[in-house]
Each structure stands twice: as structure tokens, then as C-alpha cells.
Amino acid sequence: MATLDLDSITKTFGAAKVLHGIDLAIRDKEFVVFVGPSGCGKSTLLRIIAGLEEASSGRIVIGGRDVSREAPVDRGIAMVFQSYALYPHLSVFENIAFPLRVARLGEPEVKAKVEQAAAILKLTDKLPLRPGQLSGGQRQRVAIGRSIVRNPQVFLFDEPLSNLDAALRGDMRVELSQLHRELGATMVYVTHDQVEAMTMADRIVVLNAGKIEQFGTPMELYHHPQTRFVATFIGQPNMNLLPATVKGAGPGGLSVELDGGHAMTIPVETGSARPGDRVEVGIRPENVELGSGFDMPVRVLERLGGVSITYGKVAGQRFCATLPGDAPIHEGDRVGLAVDPRHAHVFDAGGRVLRRLSAPTLVA
Ligand SMILES: Nc1ncnc2c1ncn2[C@@H]1O[C@H](COP(=O)(O)OP(=O)(O)OP(=O)(O)O)[C@@H](O)[C@H]1O
Ligand SMILES: [Mg+2]
Fold first, then answer.
1. Which of 22, 44, 192, when mutated, tests ligand 1's pocket best, judged by the most ligand atoms within 8 Å of its CB?
2. Whole-model pTM?
3. Please, which of 164, 189, 302, 364 could form a disulfide with 157 given CB 3.0 to 4.6 Å?
4. Is the four-CA dihedral 183, 219, 169, 88 of positive or negative sign?
């Protein structure tokens, strides 16, 4: 069992508080991704779990055992970094074997473990080569191999793919997901690439300025963002945010008027919102259709084949709509757009979402 529990973790560097009480319960065999903007504390949190950095307060519990005071080697974890420090003068075999040599394992055991790791990582025919004779993706796999042979309970990855080109990143993403299934290990993976987060994670932790904004499955974050921050961080192109004023509330939900005059009734609870309050209406580009709701002058049209990404302004704000690939529109046109209000989100002045009246079916 390799559950990983973080209990009120804080971290202060001098006068700067970078983690503000992180509570997290990660399940055995779960693949959890930390995402967030640069400087939000992802690497610091990972290094605290690894024991490379000491928390200012709080506890780290792995498999039910408090490891807060234990040295990194005793925690049963392995960490893989963005820059994979391989020994250039050693073969791939010896690079992978390195931690086993340090632990003074016997030759037959070293050979068996290295060969097993190489088979999993498809490196068997590379074992006699030097790192300099490998591609970037293969070198990263050697670094992962070195962590596998130690048979850790928990793998920690800090942006392991960010030095690779786009095509290789895509391949490695799939390989890492497969590896996760094969090893059946608990994995924590840091990235600021939201495609990696959405495609690899069982659950995602969205971090912002040293706090957890939301912890949930990729589809929970996409369909039910709790905050404006999560709503605009997850999803491509980004969610549109239109300023609006609350008009009132009824059985159908909250009535708002977008700046510019368009009225909508959105099926959300009123919460603390009162008539006259300023809110923001969040609309994902992929939830916009051609129709009669509001007009938008088309400033830029990107035809990607399957879809046409269309940019303009609505209610004085930049607005993006993902329309069909063959949508009969041109740059310079005024197009009519429509949005099903069931797909709209409403954020209060503090950036908190107003709860839905009846949750639409969750895509698991
Ligand atoms: N050793 C240190 N001393 C002082 N401040 C530090 C130290 N390490 C990190 N910080 C600060 O802590 C904050 C979080 O840094 P961290 O490296 O965890 O961010 P990150 O989320 O991993 O960012 P990135 O996506 O750029 O890697 C930053 O403001 C950083 O300047
Ligand atoms: Mg980092």
C-alpha cells in the first residue's frame, strides 16, 4: 500500500511564504498531477515529499507511516527530474544499475533488475551504449529506469518531458501512462502543460500561489471548476469571461445582463449574489454555436480543418468561439452566436463559482 498523505504542509523561505497549508490524500496506485503557473510551489511541494527540502510545518505520511523526519533514501520514493543527470562515461546498463551498485547488491540480482527495467522501458538493445548515443527520449527513459530498479512505493516526476520536442513528448506521455499501469505504483507528476495533466492524471491538483485551488478528476475540473482560476487554467482555448450584472433570481436560475445588453438566465444557485452585483459569466469556446444570441465581429479566423477557431469581441471583452471547420464565415463578418445557458458558469466578485441548480451528468 502506498497511499501518500500531506497534512497541513507549509513552507517559508526567509520572509516568503510559498506553501500555505497543503492537505492532500493520494490513493494507492493513483496518478496525480500537480499543475499551476510558474512559481506557484509545485517543485517545492514535490521536493518536500521527497525529503530534499524540509517543510516549515506539517506531516508527510507514506503508506500510513509518518516519514516527515526520515532521510530521502528511507522514504521509499524515487524522483525523476527535468534534467536527467546521466553519467556520460558509463553504459546505459551501468547508469540504470547505479543505485543498486551503491546498495552493494550481488551481480546476478543487479543484472536481473536492470534487464527487467530495460524490458519495461524498451531499452534492452541500448544497454551496452553510452548516453551520448541515445535520443533525448531514450535518455529520459534511462533516468526513469534508474528510479524503477529501486522498486519505490511512490514515483515523483518534476517536468520530466519538458526538454523534449513536441512529438517525443506525445510519445513519452503515452509510455509513462503505460508504465504507470504496468508498475501499479503511486505516481505524482508535476507539469505546467495542461494537456499532459488532462491526459495522464487520475486526479489533478491545481495549485495557485501556494494553495490548492481544486483537487479532482480531469473531467470534474473541466465541467465543474470551483473557481475562476481553475476555469480559465483548464481547457483550450481558454474559457471566455464576460462581465455582467445580476438582475434577479427565479426557478430557472440567476438572471444576468451581460455588459453590452444581452440577457441570460443561467441555472445556478443565487448564493450570495444580489441584484446589482457584478459577476462574470464563463463560456467555453467549444460551447458556442452559430445562432442568434449575441453578435461578434470576426477579427481573426483560424481554420484548423476540423474546427474554426474564431476570435472577436463580445461585451467589450476578447471572445473566442470554436465553430465547425466548414462554418460559412469570413474575417470581417458580423456573426450571430448562441450559447446554451446550461453550459455557462457564473463567478462572483471573489472568483468563486455559483453552484449549479442541478448538476448535469458527469462524464467519468
Ligand atoms: N531555495 C529557495 N530559496 C528561496 N526561495 C525559493 C527557493 N526555492 C523556491 N523558492 C521560491 O518558492 C516559490 C515556488 O517555487 P517552485 O520552484 O516550487 O515553483 P514551481 O511551481 O515549481 O515553478 P516552475 O513551474 O517555474 O518550475 C518561488 O517563488 C520561488 O522563487
Ligand atoms: Mg518547478
1. 44
2. 0.90
3. 189
4. negative
CA 6, CA 45: separation in Å to the nearest integer?
10
Of the two residues 5 and 193, the one the predictor is more confident about is 5
Alpha helices in the chain (DSSP H): 42-50, 92-102, 107-120, 136-148, 166-183, 194-200, 218-223, 228-233
Q: Could you report the per-residue pLDDT of 105-155, keeping only the tens digit for each?
A: 999 999 999 999 998 888 999 999 999 999 888 888 899 899 889 889 899
Which domains, from first to last, does the chain contain? 4-231 (3.40.50.300), 239-347 (2.40.50.140)
- What pLDDT, on the 0 to 100 scale, is given for residue 3? 96
CA of 42 to the centre of ligand 2 (A): 6
> Residue 222: what are its φ and ψ, rounded to 5°?
-70, -50
Whether residue 223 has pLDDT greater than 70: yes
| DSSP codes of every residue in 272-320 | T--TT-EEEEEE-GGGEEEEEEEEEE--EEEE-SSEEEEEEEETTEEEE
Q: What does the pLDDT average to over 15-42?
A: 96
Ligand 1 mutation target, pool 18, 47, 208, most atoms within 8 A of CB? 18
Nearest CA to ligand 1 atom 26: 38
* Helices (H) then strands (E): counts for the chain: 8, 20
CB atoms within 10 A of CB 215: 19
150 Rama sector, left if φ>0, alpha if ψ -120 to 50, beta otherwise? alpha
Question: Can you tell me the distance from the alpha carbon of 222 to that of 194, in angstroms, rounded to the nearest whole number?
Answer: 11
CA-nearest of 38, 18, 88, 343 to 190 is 38
Q: If 0-12 CB within 10 Å is exposed, 13-18 middle and 19+ buried, where does residue 223 land? A: buried
